[in-house]
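User: Design a sequence. Structure:
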């Protein structure tokens, strides 16, 4: 375990991105922090990599639904040399992974699988654990490789990982995206078909549409989810794991009572530890897509502000991981 023991020389200061509330609004800056700024209880970890998630971008913008009190350091992922920490309260109301050190409860720790580097664990991060839960639910529902699966928000973190993992496991993936210029990239990571978001949403206003897919992974929510539900085949499954398109959606009951479609919610922050360990083992093993390393690019803490703004403008694709040693 990469805990910092009492016999180890501890830093007087470390670097972290801190969000502060000011009269002019919420401001972000890299600051020098001390270990006294961290929670008093828990295991101290030296963070090597973190990542940028939509929830982090909201926290970094002063979203009270994510983070209640400021100043605050976001980052819902933290990877040390030997330990993975994702979700729980990390980066929400507990100082998060956008810092060179975190202190977290012991029961948040997952040992790093030896076949994954800390960088690769960060490429997965919360997004990978979310995608893995979606894939797991699809498999548990009895939907076999070779089946047709639609993935919405396919260029986002969860979407691209779900696309890559499903394709690697033998599913035929239809990727839905608002970034048509990334069609070639989506095909490279495994999409068999790419549909522009606007075309996907322009469907007849009917309670049911022609059944096209055996399962769906919806990372968007809002108007996207009911369109997916109306096109799932009999006894199919849709996993819902995002709300960037809106927290509300409207659907008739017909997909459920005429086709027996199951809508499965995915809650990653509080995923049980036994399931976390099982899914990380799969992500490190036969679920690991050969394109994993090409799904991400790195930035430093000093470059992170720009990446947050790009995400909030909808310009990001793939995964952005944060290198804390730089």
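Assistant: Done.
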């Amino acid at each position: 375990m990469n805990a910092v023991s009492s016999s180890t020389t501890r830093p007087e200061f470390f670097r972290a991105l801190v969000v502060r509330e000011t009269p002019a609004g919420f401001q972000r800056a890299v600051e020098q922090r001390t270990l006294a700024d961290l929670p008093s209880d828990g295991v101290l970890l030296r963070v090597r990599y973190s990542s940028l998630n939509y929830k982090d971008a909201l926290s970094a913008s002063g979203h009270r639904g994510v983070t209640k009190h400021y100043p605050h350091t976001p980052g819902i992922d933290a990877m040390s040399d030997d330990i993975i920490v994702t979700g729980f309260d990390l980066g929400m109301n507990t100082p998060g992974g956008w810092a060179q050190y975190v202190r977290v409860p012991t029961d948040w720790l997952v040992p790093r699988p030896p076949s994954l580097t800390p960088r690769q664990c960060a490429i997965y991060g919360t997004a990978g654990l979310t995608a893995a839960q979606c894939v797991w639910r699809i498999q548990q529902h009895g939907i076999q490789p070779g089946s047709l699966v639609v993935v919405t928000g396919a260029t986002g973190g969860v979407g691209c990982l779900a696309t890559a993992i499903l394709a690697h496991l033998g599913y035929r993936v239809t990727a839905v995206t608002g970034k048509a210029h990334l069609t070639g990239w989506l095909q490279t990571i495994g999409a068999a078909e790419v549909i522009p978001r606007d075309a996907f949403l322009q469907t007849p206003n009917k309670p049911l549409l022609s059944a096209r897919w055996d399962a769906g992974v919806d990372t968007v929510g809002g108007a996207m989810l009911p369109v997916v539900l109306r096109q799932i085949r009999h006894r199919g499954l849709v996993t819902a794991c995002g709300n960037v398109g809106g927290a509300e959606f409207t659907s008739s009951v017909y997909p459920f009572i005429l086709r027996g479609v199951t809508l499965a919610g995915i809650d990653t922050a509080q995923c049980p530890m036994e399931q976390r360990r099982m899914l990380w083992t799969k992500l490190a093993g036969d679920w690991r897509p050969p394109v994993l390393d090409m799904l991400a690019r790195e930035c430093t803490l000093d470059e992170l502000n720009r990446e947050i703004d790009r995400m909030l403008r909808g310009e990001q694709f793939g995964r952005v991981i944060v290198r804390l040693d730089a």
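The chain has a mean pLDDT of 95. DSSP finds nine helices and 16 strands in the chain.
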